[in-house]
Amino acid sequence: MSLLLSSIFDGISIGSVLLIAALGLAVVFGLMGVINLAHGELIMLGAYTTFVVQNVFKPLGEPWFSLYIFVALPLAFLISGLVGLGLERGIIRYLYGRPLETLLATWGVSLILQQFVRSVNGLLSIALVSFALLFWGGLWLVRRRPDGNQLKTKAIAVLLPLSLAIAGVIGLLIYQSRQTALINPWFSARNVDVTAPAWLKGGLPLGDFQVPYIRLFIIVLTALCVLGTYWFLNKSSWGLRIRSVMQNRSMSACLGIPTEKVDALTFALGSGLAGIAGCGISFLGSVGPNTGQNYIVDTFMVVVVGGVGNLLGTIVAALAIGVINYLVIVGSSSLAVFLASTQTVGAGFVPQFQAATGIDLVEFFNFFATTSMAKVIVFILIITFLQIKPAGLFPQKGRTAEL
Asked: Which of 330, 315, 221 is nearest to 23 (CA)?
């Protein structure tokens, strides 16, 4: 029973992380129909932000180091949100209504972000900042002219190669200076570890097992994110605009709602929630360039099972998938232990079954008591469920559901 309760709690904590990541994806997918394969990399950026903030606070010692998590959370939300905003403004807004192209484009962005984390250093950062200041600053100056709209195309044709050339020369000069601090990669391909604050170490004893404080913190963080998202979508004016665009984009535009700003805000919000999920994930294991890829499939499963764009369905699906995943592992291992204890009985069912079929039941259930096989079983259950309810637990309502 202690093992069962511990597994259920672990499943809820993992489901909580999936829920934070899926909240933003559910809103973005429900609003714009965009399959964002770079969502996992936004989670990764939140995890790396937590790692950087930890390293900044570490030399300060206590009690400042114990408080770094309260700086890492808003920064992870801000950085991932800004990257998501740039992704929407720079790529996705040109691909609305073209799902295949959007899928391929976001997959390419995910590969770029993974390689960026492996390669980023001071030299690359200075070159990118120089390019951004020259290119976007030049466009801003052109737009301030009375004839800025007419000159925009010509300005891009001139500014783009010029900015690239200047940024390239700056990077080359820095490289030739052989400054190790600027050339060495910040993260590289290796995984890094995030240390939890002292007040999140240990656990709360409940009966025969202990509830880790870090998992309790993740559950509380998830609850706060859910409440904040619910309040924003249902109580704020921009939340009303988002729900209006989700129901009927054309009519919302006719009523004067700025749908482009709604798209950008929604994408930034979903990306920021992914950054917070990355902050929580960083305490559960090592952080690496492929961290987001470990969660992106489960996140999409949560969105599909819960019902696209439905907050309640996302909550139920995330917790259910997390708990079932752990229960499959615990149930298989417990059955294997029980059957192993009955093998010593010569007239028992297990020896007779093994003699008749040649199948070792203990090894059979041990085979399913692994994380990978548990995920396979969850996949099978989800596929079966979607055959019965293809629109998910709580299908979308309104005109968009009929399209």
From this structure: 315
Q: State how far the Cα of 229 lies from the Cα of 11, in Å rounded to an integer.
A: 22
For residue 9, the surrounding DSSP H or E stretch is helix 2-32
Residues 161, 76: Cα–Cα separation, whole Å: 32
Domain extent listing, the chain: 2-120+185-402, 121-184
Q: Residues 193, 61: contact at Cβ < 8 Å?
A: no
Per-residue model confidence as pLDDT tens digits over 174-188? 878 777 777 778 887
**Would you put residue 33 in left (φ > 0), alpha (ψ -120 to 50) or beta?**
left
Place of tokens 């799902």: 99
pTM for the model:
0.83
Residue reference for tokens 């206590």: 62
Amino acid at residue number 332: S
Question: What are the tokens at 319?
Answer: 């917790």
pLDDT in tens, 273-315: 889 988 888 888 788 888 888 788 888 888 888 876 677 888 8
CA distance 84 to 39: 9
The H or E element spanning position 206 is strand 203-206
Burial of 186 (0-12, 13-18, 19+ CB in 10 A): middle
